């Protein structure tokens, strides 16, 4: 397993992983161009590969200064429960800290509390959300 910061990826790979992990529609690269968006707007991203195949990914957007976010963390079903998700978050945390960020944010549903609060070390806090 190779887990790297800002490693090369294609939008096609991430769209396929996203559709499998979030049971969403398979978006085309012209609809959701992860590569262009991450390169333009994010502090970075972490990618996990096994035998060349993309099995894990997380986007790490930021405000350009003190806040960074865990967004669209995904691990392929076959690679789950072996520490890949925790490793992706840990690498994002380290790189955000090195970039000078003071806070790493995430929001999640209740069932993932053991992962984010237990395994990854986040502290529970209030957050807000509006459907647009
Ligand atoms: C959530 C997700 C990224 C976890 O990835 P993972 O590689 O399986 O996580 P890890 O192996 O690092 O898990 C570490 C620990 O977190 C907890 N954990 C992991 N997945 C969990 C889940 N789905 N529910 C509750 N606890 C979980 C367990 O305590 C686990 O330790 P254990 O395997 O010894 O029991 C993965 O299940 C996934 O991609 N899910 C679909 C997409 C998604 O919901 N992403 C998050 C959006 S907020």
Structural class: alpha+beta
| Percentage beta strand | 25-35%
Number of strands: 6
- Distinct ligands, ions and cofactors found in the model: coenzyme A
Q: How much is the radius of gyration in Å?
A: 14 Å
Shape: globular
Largest sheet data: 4 strands, antiparallel
The tally of helices reads 4
| Measured distance between first and last alpha carbons | 38 Å
Spatially, the strands of the biggest sheet line up as: 1-2-3-5
Q: Helix and strand succession?
A: EHHEEEEHEH
Q: What proportion of the residues is helical, as a percent range?
A: 25-40%
Low-confidence stretches: none
Indicate the topology.
Elements: E1 2-5, H1 11-22, H2 34-41, E2 42-50, E3 53-61, E4 67-69, E5 71-75, H3 84-98, E6 103-105, H4 113-119
Parallel strand pairs: 4-6
Antiparallel strand pairs: 1-2, 2-3, 3-5
The protein binds coenzyme A.
What can you see in these coordinates?
The chain is an alpha+beta fold. The protein has four helices and six strands. It has helices at residues 11-22, 34-41, 84-98, 113-119; strands at residues 2-5, 42-50, 53-61, 67-69, 71-75, 103-105. The strands form two sheets. The chain has a four-stranded antiparallel beta sheet, with helices on both faces. The protein has a two-stranded parallel sheet with strand order 4-6. Strand 2 (42-50) and strand 3 form a beta hairpin. The chain is globular, with a radius of gyration of 14 Å. The site of coenzyme A has 19 residues, from helix 1, strand 5, helix 3 and helix 4. Residues 21-22, 73-75, 80-86, 108, 111-112, 114-115, 118-119 line the site of coenzyme A.
């Amino acid at each position: 397993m190779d887990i790297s910061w800002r490693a090369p990826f294609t939008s096609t790979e991430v769209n396929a992983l996203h559709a499998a992990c979030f049971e969403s529609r398979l978006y085309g690269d012209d609809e959701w161009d992860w590569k262009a968006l991450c390169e333009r707007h994010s502090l970075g991203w972490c990618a996990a590969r096994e035998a060349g195949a993309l099995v894990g990914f997380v986007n790490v957007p930021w405000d350009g200064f003190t806040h960074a976010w865990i967004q669209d963390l995904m691990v392929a079903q076959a690679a789950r429960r072996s520490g890949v998700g925790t490793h992706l978050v840990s690498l994002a945390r380290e790189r955000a800290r090195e970039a000078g960020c003071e806070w790493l944010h995430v929001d999640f549903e209740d069932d993932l509390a053991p992962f984010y609060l237990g395994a990854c070390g986040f502290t529970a806090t209030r957050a807000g959300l509006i459907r647009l």
